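Example 3.2
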Amino acid sequence: MSDRSNTTRGTAGKILLGFALLVSLVAVITIDDRLQRDSLEEFGLPTGLGDDELYDLDRAEYNPLEPVFKLNGKDIYRRRRKASNRADDEMLKIARDDADQIYFYREAKHLFKGTDAAEKTAGEGIYFVKVGDDFYLEVGISKLDLPEQGESGTPP
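Structure, written as tokens:
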């Protein structure tokens, strides 16, 4: 009969080797994170706060019948001649245009308030592009409804 209590099994060595492998793995992951730090620390807000991708109002003459962007293959038309004042923190990013140049925004109140169908669909197909801090230009899927002949009024 042999006495097993005095034989070397290497348990302490196996534990030490496992610990060394774990520390090495953590060190490799830490070094990889540090090398990619700039890309890992990028973040974006879902609102218009701090966005610097602006639409230049002077880049094309105002023509409500000509599309200015495409969104999911649909033409987006400029619906207003001038930008309106809207708080950056109340405008939520919805999507980027198909050319990946600029963000489209919607007013938060159209997305979250109300329970009836009329209030939820208010502003459907109408988006905004940022032209400056707290200033947004209204654009939309449909062309601006221009007055028919004989109607009074001017388009906004």
